[in-house]
Design a protein that fits this description.
The complex is a heterodimer of chains A (509) and B (450). Chain A has 509 residues and is of the alpha/beta class. Helices cover 34% and strands 12% of the residues of chain A. Chain A has 15 helices and 14 strands. A 7-stranded mixed β-sheet of chain A has the order 1-9-8-7-6-2-3, with helices on both faces. Chain A has a 3-stranded antiparallel β-sheet with strand order 12-14-13, covered by helices on one side. A two-stranded antiparallel sheet of chain A has the order 4-5. In chain A, strand 6 (224-230), helix 9 (242-251) and strand 7 form a beta-alpha-beta unit. The longest helix of chain A is centred in the last third of the chain and has 37 residues, at 354-390. Chain A is globular, with a radius of gyration of 26 Å. In chain A, 57% of the residues are buried. Chain B is globular. Chain B is 36% helix and 16% strand. Chain B has 13 helices and 17 strands. Chain B folds into 2 domains: 67-77 and 347-444, Aspartate Aminotransferase, domain 1 (Alpha-Beta Complex); 81-341, 3-Layer(aba) Sandwich (Aspartate Aminotransferase, domain 2), CATH 3.40.640. Classes of the chains: A alpha/beta (509), B alpha/beta (450). Chains A and B meet through helix 2, helix 3, helix 4, helix 5 and helix 6 of A and helix 1, helix 2, helix 3, helix 4 and helix 5 of B.
Chain lengths: 509, 450
């Protein structure tokens, strides 16, 4: 898969006079130069001069140093790296979608509006929540939208609340989001099984007492705006007391935000709206198979309960029923409703990452109610199969029944001075992308594995066999693991110097 | 279900190894009362053919146009075939964020090149691996400006900034009662210098100005930088049409301390508003306050040059509630489209393309002004968009255009009551002389005001 030779930066290949783009002949008079002299473009320092051939080869060579889902299992926990169906790519490229202008009048983009409305209907039924906005561009953007909705709700009810509760197992985006929305974060401690602790927890090392949910709700009460809870949590365990948590928070007027990063464990099996969730986001680039694109673009729709409907971002897509004669099939038209006085406003310039939303609807239509549930069950079976096969060779820090992912710890390997990072790098030598490492923070040396439903038994076995062989190697030759990877295009990188003396762009010379 | 690979026999074997009879037995961690005990009330699975037709049917319900003379933050540009071909390689589009540098050098080196080009276009030192879009880029930039400018809490925003960017800013600032957004008015299509001067004070952290602005006009950044810097504030240029960088001097070279905006014009189609490409570039002194992922150059154990995600001490997964932003996913694949576009274009292509846009827009404006009902509103220099007042019936003009499958300019009254009856027109390299003539002919036939 990997080319051994280095591909230089394109800037180093630039040769004056080469062109990779020809312009059409200008069929109108040449431009008059109306710019003030000092605003005239002086030139470029880096833009390379290359032919199309060289640009194509450059990027093709670079691509070969990447690992993609089509190369094999991509077991990043919490990232849900599932197959990206090619149909979805194809339909997202239909000119009827790609040519459509976001400022065009509603009557001219009825297909887009119907598509968005339909996707919302699917997401409502899947989550059990009655309102959706498709504007947020990513999970973190969805979180921010959700927390701003919580804030708008409290402000409308005349309450100034200052705290958001977040479990210590939560994604870093949760506390960062709460801070961006102007809230103070108070951490909820976990129980040994990774779920939220109702009771206070005493740290066995330093004897410090961390306040549990009950104490915090008693003490902070009406200061709590809400809680952001990932469910299933980041160790893949369902918060089995979720309904009690919701009830307790609701009893002091706080709202419940669910981080839906792990929704691939619940679609068709359980609905957040049925256990007290007021607002949540979905990651369409996880659960709904839209591609990750090396970091994005994603989409992070937010689903809300009745209480938060008035505050949804503008505009909201509305379906109108056109009156037809008796016995005829009712006809529908769609429009954007911009007139929503209690709305928090806009959270994206236009309507979100529309091209991603097209792919997500294609995923829904392909799976249907039956396929969605089956996919969830298979994802859970696959994760539990890996758990069953690796248990013993790797330590299961938390032994509760887990759903779509399994988190091991490196405690058995640490005895040989081999750690999670070494195991991850050795997997690269075997041709695999490593799992998520050192997250969640509550598991020492975490190796968080999420296979998704896209892997068959053969792939799972090959992956497990590799991890078992590595566990044996740890005992036989720990030093070899410290050297890994040795078969990848690069060996371990000096990240310290990269951060200390940052080189963040190419410069001539 | 074609996307689920295990056969029934394999499934059986998986369950046997786990030690359960049925997959449902693995749901024991979910209390029974919280499970969904029915099928989702949704259609059942669709074959590839059925879904392809359903989606095509939706796409066909959108009106198609021979020409769109509408920009306003979403521009119609030609996309070279190489771009779609390259981004459809699975190594690019199915990969995750490059957390493991040893097997993500492709994505990492690409982002390093992309960062270099954004710095080149903006004339600034440091950028990141992208933000969601123009509006959210304004938010991240404004929040960064108040972080950098300690003890200053006000951000001045020119009324010439895209009205929807201003809406997104308003939403993001609402939770922060200690921060203030204040609008600076327009005069003759550009930021009103007198109003700016009146609103500058020691609480102003930054001033956001369009370059070119929403009305297409070129703001004189150098002239604005004087009073802004004298007041100790940062000048931020906001560019919603990044192709203008082929014609206008890099903002960092003419007074801007930060540059942000929208770069969808590099290799993307309008696509109903997304996915687009937000960018933000800053000076070296501010690099540790920049939000989002940043790629840096380094070496591996053998001394080979390579690339890693760096300056992570700013980010949410390390700093949690003290992070510079909550951003995690960005617009990865869209940065690849932009990088490809810029490398194909090169300096000559980019300048030539920008010149063509100016020529087409100037010609369109001239031809529209030949119509008796069109008149100029202001005379500021413009890139590929401009404003004209229409003395006729706006609804009739629109209907006439739609009927001939042309999308006219934006009716500005929706966003600027003071420009009621005005249209914001756009022309790019895609608009041929013939298309422009058709538009003029159609407009000449629009019935007079009723």
């Amino acid at each position: 898969m990997f080319l051994r030779q280095r591909e230089p930066l394109s800037f180093e290949r630039s040769v004056p006079g080469k062109r990779g783009m020809d312009l059409p002949k200008l069929d109108v008079p040449a431009a008059k130069d109306t710019r003030p002299a000092h605003l005239k473009r002086s030139g470029f320092e880096a833009l390379p001069e290359l032919s199309e051939v060289e640009v194509i080869r450059h990027f093709t060579r670079l691509s070969k140093w990447n690992y993609g889902v089509d190369d094999g299992i991509y077991p990043l926990g919490s990232c849900t790296m599932k197959h990206n169906p090619r149909l979805n790519e194809k339909v997202a490229g239909l000119p009827g979608f790609t040519d459509s202008h976001p400022m065009a009048p509603d009557a001219l983009v009825q297909g887009n509006l119907e598509l968005l409305y339909t996707l919302q209907e699917w997401l409502k039924e899947i989550t059990g929540l009655p309102g959706v906005t498709l504007q947020p561009s990513a999970g973190a953007a969805g979180e921010l939208t959700g927390v701003m909705l919580i804030r708008a709700y409290h402000v409308a009810h005349g309450a100034k609340r200052r705290v958001i509760l977040i479990p210590d197992s939560g994604h870093g985006t949760n506390p960062a989001t709460a801070a961006m929305a102007g809230y103070e974060v108070v951490e909820l401690p976990s129980r040994p099984d990774g779920t939220i602790s109702f009771e206070d927890v005493t740290d066995p090392v330093n004897g410090k007492v961390r306040k549990g949910l009950k104490t915090l709700v008693n003490e902070l009460g009406a200061e709590i705006a809400g809680a952001m809870i990932t469910n299933p949590n980041t160790v893949g365990v369902f918060e089995h007391r979720f309904k009690e948590i919701s009830d307790l928070l609701h009893s002091v007027g706080a709202l419940v935000y669910m981080d839906g990063a792990n929704m691939n464990a619940l679609v068709g099996v359980a609905r957040p709206g049925d256990f007290g969730v007021d607002v949540m986001h979905l990651n369409l680039h996880k659960t709904f198979s839209t591609p990750h694109g090396g970091g994005g673009p994603g989409a992070g729709p937010v689903c809300v309960g009745e209480k938060l409907l008035p505050f949804l971002p503008v505009p909201v897509v509305v379906r109108d029923t056109v009156k037809v004669g008796e016995g005829e099939v009712p006809k529908h038209t769609y429009h954007w409703d911009w007139n929503r006085p209690q709305s928090i406003g806009k959270v994206h310039t236009f309507f979100g990452n529309f091209g991603i939303l097209v792919r997500a609807l294609a995923y829904c239509l392909s799976h249907g109610s039956d396929g969605l549930r089956e996919a969830t069950l298979r994802a859970i079976v696959n994760a539990n199969y890996i758990r069953a096969r690796l248990k013993g060779a790797y330590a299961l820090h938390i032994d509760s029944p887990s759903l779509h992912e399994v988190v091991f710890s490196d405690t058995l390997q640490a005895k040989h001075d081999v750690h999670t990072l070494d195991i991850a790098k050795r997997l690269i030598d075997h041709g695999y992308h490593p799992p998520t490492i050192y997250f969640p923070l509550i598991v020492p040396g975490a190796l968080m594995i999420e296979p998704t439903e896209s892997e068959d038994k053969g792939e799972l076995d090959a992956f497990c066999d590799t991890l078992l062989a590595i566990a044996k190697e740890v005992e036989a030759d720990p030093e070899a693991l410290h050297q890994a990877p040795t078969l990848a295009p690069m060996r371990r990188m000096d990240e310290t110097t990269a951060a200390r003396k940052p080189v963040l762009r190419w410069t001539k010379g | 279900m074609r996307y689920l690979p295990s056969s029934p026999a394999e499934d059986r074997a998986l369950l046997d190894t786990i030690g359960v009879a049925r997959a449902e037995d693995l749901l024991s961690g979910i209390p029974e009362g919280l499970r969904l005990n029915r099928d989702l009330d949704l259609p059942t699975q669709g074959s590839e053919q059925e879904v392809a037709w359903q989606m095509l049917d939706l796409a066909n319900k959108n009106r198609r146009f021979c020409a769109q003379f509408l920009g306003a933050g979403a521009y119609d540009h030609f996309v070279p075939a190489a771009i779609d071909a390259m981004v459809s390689r699975q190594e690019w589009f199915t990969a995750y964020t490059p957390y493991q540098p040893e097997i993500s050098q492709g994505t990492l080196q690409h982002i390093f090149e992309y960062q270099t080009l954004i710095c080149d276009l903006t004339g600034l030192d440091v950028t990141n691996a992208s933000l969601y879009d123009g509006g959210t880029a304004c938010v991240e930039t404004a929040l960064m400006a108040v972080r950098v400018q300690k003890k200053r809490h006000t951000v001045l925003v020119s009324r010439g900034l895209h009205p929807l960017y201003r809406e997104v800013l308003k939403t993001a600032f609402a939770p922060h009662q200690d921060l203030h957004l204040v609008e600076v008015g327009l005069k003759d299509g550009v930021t009103d210098a007198a109003d700016l001067q009146a609103k500058l004070n020691e609480d102003v952290a930054a001033v956001l100005v369009g370059y070119p602005n929403f009305l297409g006009a070129v703001e004189d950044l150098t002239a604005l930088a004087g009073p802004v810097h004298a007041a100790g504030a940062l000048l931020v240029s906001v560019t919603q049409e990044a192709l203008a960088f082929g014609w206008l001097e890099a903002p960092g070279k003419v007074g801007a301390d930060m540059a942000c905006g929208e770069a969808m014009s590099f290799g993307n189609r309008p696509t109903f508003g997304g996915p687009y490409l937000g960018f933000l570039a800053v000076k070296d002194a501010h690099k540790r306050e920049i939000p989002g992922r940043v790629v840096g150059q380094t070496r591996d154990l053998d001394g080979k040059t390579g690339y890693v995600l760096t300056l992570t001490a700013r980010e949410q997964h390390i700093r949690r509630d003290k992070a510079t932003s909550n951003i995690c996913s960005n617009q990865g694949l869209v940065t690849l489209r932009a990088n490809l576009f810029l490398q194909l274009a090169g300096p000559e292509g980019l300048k030539g393309l920008a010149e063509q846009n100016v020529a087409k827009a100037q010609h369109l404006r001239q031809r529209l002004l030949d119509l008796p009902d069109m008149e100029p509103v202001f005379e500021a220099p413009f890139f590929n968009e401009f404003v004209l007042r229409y003395k006729g019936d706006m609804a009739a003009l629109q209907e006439a255009c739609f009927a001939e499958s042309l999308l006219p300019g934006l009716d500005l009254g929706r966003f600027y009551p003071e420009y009621q009856g005005c249209l914001l027109w756009c022309a790019t390299e895609l608009h041929t002389r013939r298309m422009i003539e058709s538009l003029v002919e159609i407009l000449a036939r629009v019935p007079a005001t009723v």
